[in-house]
Amino acid sequence: MVRSMTGFAQAQVEEGPWTLGVTVKALNHRFLDLHLRLPQELEAVEPLLRERVREKVGRGHVEVHFQVEAHERRPLQVDKEFLRAYLELYAELKREHQLGGELDLTAVLRLPGVLRTSSPPLESEEAQQLVGLAERALREALERLNEMRRAEGAALERELRERIEQIASGQKELVKLGQRALPACHRRLTERLEELLGQSPLDPARLAQEAAYLAERSDVSEELTRLASHTEQFARLLSSDGTVGKRLDFLLQEMNREANTILSKASGLEADGLEMTRWGLEIKAQIERLREQVQNVE
Q1: What's the fold here for domain 153-294?
Q2: Cα 217 to Cα 82, 210, 276, distances in angstroms
Q3: What is the pLDDT of residues 24-65, one digit of tens each?
Q4: Computed from CA positions of residues 119, 125, 129, 132, in that sequence, does the dihedral angle turn out positive or negative?
Q5: pTM confidence score
Q6: Is the domain 7-74+121-149 a CATH 3.30.230 member?
Q7: Which of 61, 144, 232, 261 could form a disulfide with 9 if both were Cys (CB 3.0 to 4.6 A apart)?
């Protein structure tokens, strides 16, 4: 079953002194573009958390945001060196520019990095408990994300199957038209050969070359066979698991190539050629609609 690349999920777990929340948002992208926003307590285990995401998500722009809240109030710490340097610079500028007024201590304490809560080292038992909570919350969030992406993927798969069936039907019609157009192909070949035979002197190699070229130019059987093979492979991929979006897109490129070749060969095949052109254009239209939808397949 295919999965959509877009989705949103949240999870929250609570244990001991910690409450940990995870928010995951996924959007379309050609590759796995992973962005993690981690609190200070989890920065050391970023590689581990990235690996956990890669185990569940194969492709897309994925944003993961962790939030940690401690139930017990932890003591505040002041970066005294930073604060001392700031006060000295303030006093120096005040003397140099003869400024008045007093420093607002509340404003100083709000400066980034001045105040911080003490965090336990990752080697501690409490820190290991936090890492376990992070993995658990991330696992729950990713499971919910994939549930949503599978639900969207099911609707997407239905539409993809409908369109690929229309292409398969068009391919079968083209096979019939190609067989009906054989007399016209033979007439064109005969007329060209008669034209060449009327020339003097006649080059046998040139005659063979023209005959082979005209036969190949009018025959679409190989292109139709490859088109049928590509549609079958496309349908099989829709039933497989894993990351299939890139392979589906590649097959559509090949199908578009075959459709273009069929259209180029259909010209000059009288009434059947016009009908073949109509079916070829319809197939190309379905391929373009498929390519738009496949951009959202993981």
Answers
A1: Four Helix Bundle (Hemerythrin (Met), subunit A) (1.20.120)
A2: 80, 10, 14
A3: 999 999 899 999 999 988 988 999 999 999 999 999 999 999
A4: positive
A5: 0.70
A6: yes
A7: 144
